Amino acid sequence: MLSVLQYAVDILKVKHIVVCGHYNCGGCASAMSNRQYGLIDNWLRNIKDIYSANETQMNTLPNNAERLDVYHTTIVQNAWARGQSISLHGWVYRLSDGILELSVFTIKPN
């Protein structure tokens, strides 16, 4: 994913990035637990590290659904630092009914 993002931002100079996730992500929920799941733990390691580094703040959120929101990469941060115009748009897909919520958030540089 990061190589595609970097190509789009650095080479193609895209102006809009859509991040589409889904509610009740089992991978993120698993990463927030202290259990081991096997080989998938290697994939979850980065999420676990982010959660551990921010656990105090995450625990102030009212429910698990809000704790599973994620954003930021150095690719986008560096593009903004260069003055490149990029907007991030967050979409969320609900698996239970197929509803896609558009523009849940939009992030632009300050």
From TrEMBL:
Keywords, in A-Z order? Lyase, Metal-binding, Zinc
Name the Gene Ontology biological process terms.
carbon utilization
A single Gene Ontology MF term assigned here is:
zinc ion binding
Query: Which Enzyme Commission number(s) are on file for it?
Result: 4.2.1.1
| Superkingdom in the source lineage | Eukaryota
EC category name: lyase
Q: Does the keyword Metal-binding apply?
A: yes
Q: How is the cofactor bound?
A: Binds 1 zinc ion per subunit.
Q: Which cofactor does it need?
A: Zn(2+)
SMART domains referenced in this protein's UniProt entry, alphabetically: Pro_CA
Q: Which reaction does it catalyse?
A: hydrogencarbonate + H(+) = CO2 + H2O
Instruction: Report the family membership.
Output: Belongs to the beta-class carbonic anhydrase family.
**According to its UniProt entry, what is the function of this protein?**
Reversible hydration of carbon dioxide.
Q: What's the name of the protein? A: Carbonic anhydrase
